[in-house]
Amino acid sequence: MNEYLKTDPWKLVEERFDPLRVESSESLFALGNGVMGGRANFEEHYSGPSLQGNYIGAVYYPDKTRVGWWKNGYPEYFAKVLNAAFWIGVDVAIDGERLDLARVEVLDFYREMDMRRSVLTRRMRVRMAGGAEVAVEAVRFLSLERRELGVVRYAVTPLDRTAEIEFSPYIDADVRNTDANYDEKFWEEVATDGDVVRSRTKKSGFEAAWAQAVTLDGARFRCTTEPEKVRHTAVVRCEAGRTATLCKYAGICSSLNHAPDELADAARAVAADGLAAGFDALLREQEEAWARRWHGCDIVIEGDDEAQQGIRFCIFMLLQTYTGVDTRLNIGPKGFTGEKYGGVTYWDTEAYCLPFYLATAGAEVARELLVYRYDQLDKAIENAAKLGFRDGAALYPMVTINGEECHNEWEITFEEIHRNGAIAYAVFNYVRYTGDEEYLAECGLEVLLSIARFWAQRITWSEARGQYVMLGVTGPNEYENNVNNNWYTSYIACWCLRYAAEAAAWVRENRPADYARICAKRGFDEGAETARWQRIVEKMYLGEDRERGIFLQQDGYLDKEQVLVADLDPAERPINQKWSWDRILRSCFIKQADVLQGIYLFQEDFDLETIRRNFRFYEARTLHESSLSPCVHAILAAKIGDMEKAYELYLRTARLDLDDYNREVEEGCHVTSMAGSWLSVVEGFGGMRVKEGVLTFAPHLPEAWRSLAFKVNYRGRVLTVKCTREAVEVACEGEPVEVEIAGVRYCVDRELRVEN
Ligand code: BGC
Question: Is 374 near ligand 1, meaning CB less than 6 Å away?
């Protein structure tokens, strides 16, 4: 438990200024509105250590790859959503002395992120070197309603004397990424003109414009420009106890949404409209927009304040990162909270985030995530072709922003191919949850058949075994590379082949015109291709150890020395920092859910005893050194009734960043794994699954919780499910719905209560 942040159900609260925590708080208090976001840097100048970060989703730079031994098939560049102009800047000087928290005496400091409305507030009292005491209140938000608008209100009150206060709000586009591979600057200036800065990304050619409109109690501003900077300056004389309040409205527009020659005017118009609406009206608009967002996705946990704050923080961060308004956007592992992972797309989206958006934001938003991959299908086919695959086989990249592969470690780029399975599974998951089978005809089938073609070429016929095998892969457990017959990869490959065949049959029978179009466009010969898929599925080798009753993670896993995590000296962990790579590869320790990832996705295929045996075996060997891991184990632990373990694993995921378990939160928050935390509450403790089109619940509450209530959006309705030790209650807004609770089906008209 982090003693530094206060536990509060709806807020993150920091009550003192700790220069050593500035960077971690910059990550935790980050703001986002789904299309852009930024770290919680201070508005005023700060000369202490800080990681400046403001990001515009999908505006990226192709940073030339840096690699030791180049391998054919490696990508030329790593696309990163780059650090963009510092739009929040407000320089402040009191009687000529610049306000800088690293230089003044901080008497009081309070910062809160109000998660209910996504508003960041900071209040502080400082003593300047010259002796003047001043109070400051800075309030900032990124408008959810006006997606190109950022707002700052910055108020200064001299406390002990009349003071001359200079406010100098500015926008600075002269920014860099700290992770640039060749120390390059990624932006170049197009023009700086009055109140607007315009810049262009080198190579990728995105343009963006930032404009500011400012007010300060009627004071007149002087506008000055320098290369890549605009600044307004005004000086006010303020008596002790009187407050001078600056409001700044920033328009942030990019060529994703505007023609380059219209960008400056667009940014100016956004800022001017913000100013015309005024701070208070914009704040009310923000509160209403966020209230609508929370309706339909809140989770209430009674009896455990830390768990409550933890899960709200996860939901809040996910809502800030992605809203489904643009199919070019996706969810980077760190969202808008830092540079790490470059803001680009991993399998995290399909395997972890999609179910969250499906159940909280609804079908349309989740569909955008699927369409993102559909739009990149041709690139995935090109990517597979570069690696030697033919005939329309698709291998989606491990890391991408525009459909091209960006990852350049061979064991992951070429071998961690299970990502293709997650992308196919997401189509299935979406159709299962929404009932929208039309999606198969519109987009889904093309993706599925191209993925199936990949698997059908990626397997090898083993004469020795008389079976198909899958050679040279890396499973989700990245602590083993180039293994043969990774159970998870082979299992999901077989599943893809079966599901693609089912989807083809559905489209042929129900949407003949789409079927004909797809066959022509993709050269699909259903009879011949699905017959081969079927043969592969029947003859695929899937490793098992019958004596132990477990699925075998990969060939040779049991040859390794079988040491358990419990036997490992805690001082040796995390092993990825303490051990040589060679030692890691030879050990039996598992980085993250692997066999159990498969058992989680395909729970219905296995009986409880099989799940229990595999869970016991693999959990004892899993280090959870990826943040994506404990949530999957937590769900399975709850399923087999091991509530103590489920709760222990849940705590590792839900407050991972708040409590900074991994001592790295200053780099950014683990946004995609936050979706995993949501999964462990709703699917783990709530036991939610969709079976045959019916939403089912099998709640298991942790000891510490009096009750758990969660909301889900299901086929156009909002359901509130409340689980206590005595009963399960379901309230339904919208059409009556059938649900299953502990194996029994009920129709919920408005409200239902089922005693345990
Ligand atoms: C995990 C991957 C994940 C990536 C980004 C890695 O540490 O092993 O499964 O996709 O982080 O979150």
Answer: no
Structure tokens at 489: 């990869």
Ligand 1 centroid from CA 679, angstroms:
17
478: annotated active-site residue: yes
144 plus 33 within the same structural domain: yes
Q: Which atom of ligand 1 is nearest to the CA of 333?
A: 12
| Residue 338 Cβ < 6 Å to ligand 1 | no
554 CA → ligand 1 middle, Å: 20
Tell me the pLDDT tens digit for each residue of 431-476. 999 999 999 999 999 999 999 999 999 999 999 999 999 999 999 9
Residue 243 is assigned to a structural domain of this protein = yes
pLDDT band of residue 159 (cuts 50, 70, 90) is very high
Q: Tell me the average pLDDT across 723-745.
A: 97
- Burial degree of 394 (CB within 10 A; 0-12, 13-18, 19+): buried
Instruction: Answer yes or no: do 269 and 360 share one domain.
Output: no
Check residue 652 and give its pLDDT: 86
Cα 704 to ligand 1 centroid, rounded to whole Å: 31
Counting from 1 in the atom list of ligand 1, the atom nearest the Cα of 626 is 7
From ligand 1's centre to the CA of 599, what distance in Å? 19
pLDDT for 1: 60
Note the pLDDT tens digit of each residue in 26-69: 999 999 999 999 999 999 999 999 999 999 999 999 999 998 89
Instruction: Kindly report, residue by residue over 254-292, the tens digit of the pLDDT.
Output: 999 999 999 999 999 999 999 999 999 999 999 999 999
474 Cβ inside 6 Å of ligand 1: no
Q: Is 628 in the pocket of ligand 1 (CB under 6 A)?
A: yes
- How many residues belong to the chain? 756
Task: Read off the pLDDT band of 381 (50, 70, 90).
Answer: very high
- Which of 620, 646, 669 delimits the end of a domain? 669
- The C-alpha atoms of residue 151 and residue 163 are separated, in whole angstroms, by 26
Count how many domains the chain has.
2
2 pLDDT tier (thresholds 50, 70, 90): low
**Nearest Cα residue to atom 5 of ligand 1:** 333
Measured from the Cα of 592, ligand 1's closest atom is: 8
- Indicate if 194 and 334 belong to the same structural domain: no
Indicate whether 521 pLDDT > 80: yes
Contact 201, 61 (CB under 8 A): yes
Choose which residue among 78, 331, 344, 346 to substitute to test ligand 1 binding: the one with the highest number of ligand atoms within 8 A of its C-beta: 346
**φ, ψ (nearest 5 deg) of residue 720:** -110, 120
Q: In what order do the strands lie in the sheet with 5-6?
A: 5-6, 11-14, 105-114, 119-127, 133-142, 149-158, 244-254, 207-216, 196-201, 187-193
Show Cβ contacts of residue 581 under 8 Å, excluding neighbours closer than 6 positions.
Answer: none
Same domain, 271 and 357: no
> How far apart are the CA of 417 and the centre of ligand 1, in A?
13
**Active-site residue among 43, 478, 666, 683?**
478
Q: Which domain holds residue 448?
A: 323-669
Rounded CA-CA distance 220/233 in Å is: 8
Taking the complete model, does pTM exceed 0.90, yes or no? yes
Distance from first CA to last CA of the chain, Å, rounded? 33
Which of 401, 600, 626 should be mutated for ligand 1, with most atoms under 8 A from CB? 626
CA–CA dist 426, 650 (Å, integer):
23
Domain at 384, CATH number: 1.50.10.10
| pLDDT tens digits along 89-119 | 999 999 999 999 999 999 999 999 999 999 9
Question: Within a domain: residue 25?
Answer: yes
Q: Say if ligand 1 is within 6 A of residue 397 CB.
A: no
